[in-house]
Design a protein that fits this description.
alpha/beta; Calcium-transporting ATPase, cytoplasmic transduction domain A; Calcium-transporting ATPase, transmembrane domain; 4 domains; 15% strand; elongated; metal-binding; transmembrane; transport; membrane; calcium
């Protein structure tokens, strides 16, 4: 059986599959069905709902927290254990919901396939379920069919197939049974049809060469199944943070428990101190609040037509330094449009406003294009639809014109003759390939009427065809005759029509904006080099172009060098796209991939951020992506990058705020325990974390973005969020908080041998209010105006009310607190007054010696 059926004759391919043009017998079908299996795209492995839920707890942070909950329960502190468990479960539910929504890409591939197929069996033509097709079956195709399996054409009549979803080719492909070179790219294999593509015109007969997972769509499904979920930089850092904290907690417990036992501390109390240290060290709210902060940003992005399917992608989007974009339907409109016509030495640019007034020759050209045409504005061949749209834009009533000049005869288009003719009473019109139509013409239409077509005139037409083609225009010639009984010669040449899938109007500005933000843009398309280069030029992109077949000759190391130089990749296959992406990622880039076709799905899933088109995108592309553009507008990507960077700024503030609090809590509990004081039990530490990680942290997500967010380069992918500026802030602010709280503890404890409820309440409350003061200082560090976020003010106020509730309501019996008097609040006020300039000094030091732009950079370009 041949691995390259496109390079062999139809007879040889039939022989390879031990088949004939009359089809297989039922017995042969049963045997092959048992050998090859059903013709369907199957999912290699499917995660159960339970497995998706359980994987949410595969984290060191979670393990340490669960261990702390168990210890609390064993020690009789049920409230602590319940609080810890609730936090863990809520975080797991958030993760489960997001993962479950992302588990459907292969199912979409299965639904894409044709439900039935017309096949020759036992000497007759029958309709069967497409899943029953086997290699060697002979199938019949006609306009409107979804191709049910990969096949080698045996015969065709004017067959055209829309393969855009698979190859990226914007126009339907004319098919022919003739063999092609073995190295012919997928998009140029005119004698092959592929599963899940659409027949737009004509009829054909093909022998099935591959079914199910062996088809081109099946190979994409296999690629999707083998693709591991990419992790964003923040996810990796949080995992690493969890590992380090787990080790740190173990070391602290190993130190504290023996020390306390040596001081005759009861074992239970020593164990509770270790639990408190664990709770203080672990930012248990971090995963949940990061998720919620991202979710708030996602809601805003959805209002801006960017639908995020996977929350961590928001953070990665702000770090992207390369965008790999498909051309068809992404940078371009995704539909053919008449952009230029030529009538005897005159080139006229056409647009939606039309030519006012249209010349007689242009009017005739457009009318002929409509009459010699089987399409409407909404249905039919895209090329013919473009002619109808151009006529309508030029005030031609297409429906009335066709009623006024009904078709009385026709010569249908075929891929062999490459032209089409229609007769309307005494006049015949012809359109088709320029060289073919010109060869049938003896005259050319001029301003003064028809004139003899000289060799010089024919050369000018050929020159104009080449000029149009160099601008990536698809060119048709139009002619007419007043002797419709003979349409093979003596035609009058009217002119040329140049069509293109034009760039979107807003894309050039969006590309310029993303490039100003330090993001390289690369076009990866299945279209040919000439078309890709022309579109890139119109959009202002650098036109260093290479073809997919050139990439096949490069090893991974050579490809890694080449991808840095090339801007436009043409004639690429799905495998090429994934190789390009991996090469860029190996070079240290954070890569976003945009696309809309089935062929884009593996690259979308492999990318750090996969961006699918919402209107033109296939379900497969959407399910494999991290984000969907609801308006198919490339400019939305620019806004999404801007939003992603703003969200990252807010995450930075939150992580710095949270970790500096955790450092202070650990240091306070540890140092106080050395004096024999358990100053903050686990329930109070959890409450502090809930207040700071809760409403105020969420409100940070609504902080306005800074004005320079798109003037910065992307964050250096080699540098994490927890870099020198943040470490300086965590260490400095944590030290200030620890010193102030230790001082407050020793002041209010008055030399007592054990901690008192009053002293514990003072430190507990002082710590909460000190954290809110620090929060506003951290926002100032990120250039956020103090009173720019009313939601934050409400959140802080609400948290303060909750803190008062645990002091002055019956809740105090669960937290071990007592009510405070006016004098006590005065003492806390003094602590806050000392803390503010101390925090500001830390921030000013960081701004001077550890500037925040250390945390961003050009990255490897």
């Amino acid at each position: 059986m041949s691995d390259l059926p496109h390079s062999r004759s139809a007879e040889d391919v039939l022989a390879d599959f031990d088949a004939s043009a009359e089809g297989l017998t039922s017995g042969e079908v049963r045997q092959r069905l048992a050998e090859y299996g059903e013709n369907e795209v199957v999912q290699a492995s499917e995660r159960t709902l339970l497995s998706i839920f359980l994987v949410q707890f595969n984290s060191v942070l979670i393990w340490v927290l669960l261990a702390a909950a168990v210890l609390s329960a064993l020690a009789g502190h049920a409230i602590d254990a319940v609080l810890i468990t609730v936090i863990v479960v809520v975080n797991g539910i958030f993760g489960f919901v997001q993962d479950y929504r992302a588990e459907q890409s292969l199912e979409a591939l299965r639904e894409l396939t044709a439900p039935t197929a017309t096949v020759r069996r036992d000497g007759t033509t029958v309709e069967v379920a497409a899943t029953e097709l086997v290699p060697g079956d002979v199938i019949e195709l006609e306009s409107g069919d979804v191709v049910p399996a990969d096949g080698r054409l045996l015969e065709d009549v004017d067959l055209e197939v829309d393969e855009a979803a698979l190859t990226g080719e914007s126009a339907p492909v004319s098919k022919s049974p003739e063999p092609v070179d073995p190295d012919t790219p997928l998009a140029e294999r005119e004698n092959m049809v592929f599963k899940s593509t659409n027949v737009t015109r004509g009829r054909g007969v093909a022998v099935v060469t591959a079914t199910g997972m062996d088809t081109e769509v099946g190979s994409i499904a296999r690629e999707l199944a083998a693709t591991e979920e990419t992790r964003t930089p923040l996810q990796g850092e949080l995992d690493e943070l969890g590992r380090r904290l787990g080790i740190g907690v173990s070391v602290l417990a190993a130190l504290v428990i023996p020390l306390l036992l040596m001081r005759d501390t009861p074992l239970v109390e020593a164990g509770l101190t270790a639990v408190s240290l664990a709770v203080a060290a672990i930012p248990e709210g971090l995963p949940a609040v990061v998720t919620l902060t991202l979710a708030l940003g996602v809601r805003t992005m959805a209002d801006e037509n960017a639908l995020v399917r996977r929350l961590p992608a928001v953070e990665a989007l702000g770090s992207v330094d390369v965008i790999c974009t498909d051309k068809t339907g992404t940078l371009t409109e995704g539909q053919m449009t008449v952009s230029r016509v030529w009538v005897n030495d005159s080139v006229v640019e056409l647009d939606e406003t039309g030519v006012e007034p249209p010349s007689d020759r242009i009017d005739l050209l457009l009318r002929a294009g409509v009459l010699c045409n089987d399409a409407t504005a909404d249905t039919g061949d895209p090329t013919e639809q473009a002619l109808v749209e151009a006529a309508e834009n030029h005030r031609i009533d297409v429906e009335a014109l066709r009623k006024e000049h009904p078709r009385t005869d026709e010569i249908p288009f075929s891929s062999e003759q490459k032209w089409m003719g229609t007769v309307h009473g005494d006049v015949g019109y012809v359109k088709g390939a320029p060289g073919v139509v010109l060869s049938k013409c003896s005259r050319v239409l001029t301003d003064d009427g028809p004139a003899d077509l000289t060799s010089e005139g024919a050369d000018r037409v050929h020159d104009q065809v080449r000029t149009f083609a160099d601008d990536a225009l698809r060119v048709l010639a139009v002619a007419y005759t007043e002797n419709p009984e003979n349409m093979e010669d003596d035609l009058v040449f009217v002119g040329l029509v140049g069509m293109i899938d034009p760039p979107r109007e807003e894309v050039a500005d969006a590309l310029a904006a993303t490039e100003r933000a330090g993001i390289d843009v690369k076009m990866i398309t299945g279209d040919n080099v000439r078309t890709a280069a022309a579109i890139a030029g119109e959009l202002g992109m650098h036109q260093e172009v290479t073809e997919g077949r050139e990439l096949d000759g490069l090893d991974d190391e050579e490809l890694a060098e080449r991808v840095e130089e090339v801007t436009v990749f043409a004639r690429t296959s799905p495998e090429h796209k994934v190789r390009i992406l991996r090469a860029l990622q190996e070079n240290g880039h954070i890569v976003a991939m945009t696309g809309d076709g089935v062929n884009d799905a593996p690259a979308l899933k492999n990318a750090d951020v996969g961006v699918a088109m919402g209107i033109r995108g296939t379900d497969v592309a959407k399910q494999a992506s991290d984000m969907v553009l609801l308006d198919d507008n490339y400019a939305t990507i620019e806004r999404a990058v801007e939003r992603g960077r703003a969200i990252f700024d807010n995450l930075w503030k939150f992580v710095a705020f949270l970790l500096s609090a955790n450092v202070a809590e650990v240091a306070l509990v540890f140092l106080a325990s050395l004096w024999g004081y358990l100053v903050l039990p686990a329930v109070q530490l959890l409450w502090i974390n809930l207040l700071t990680d809760g409403l105020p942290a969420l409100a940070l997500g609504a902080d306005p973005q800074s004005g320079d967010v798109m003037d910065r380069p992307p964050r250096d992918p080699d540098k994490g969020i927890i870099e020198r500026p943040m470490l300086g802030l965590i260490g400095g602010a944590g030290t200030v908080s620890t010193v102030l709280m230790l001082g407050l503890m020793f002041y209010v404890i008055g030399g007592a041998a054990a901690i008192t409820p009053y002293a514990m309440t003072m430190v507990f409350t002082g710590f909460v209010f000190l954290e809110f003061e620090k929060l506003y200082v951290i926002r100032w560090l990120r250039e956020t105006p103090t009173f720019s976020n009313p939601w934050l003010a409400l959140a802080v106020g609400g948290s303060m009310v909750l803190q008062l509730a645990v002091l002055y309501t019956p809740l105090n019996q669960y937290f071990g607190t007592v009510p405070l008097g006016v004098e006590d609040w005065g003492i806390i006020g003094v602590v806050l007054a000392i803390g503010l300039p101390a925090y500001l000094a830390i921030v000013l030091t960081i701004k001077r010696y550890l500037p925040l732009d250390e945390n961003s950079g050009e990255g490897p370009h």
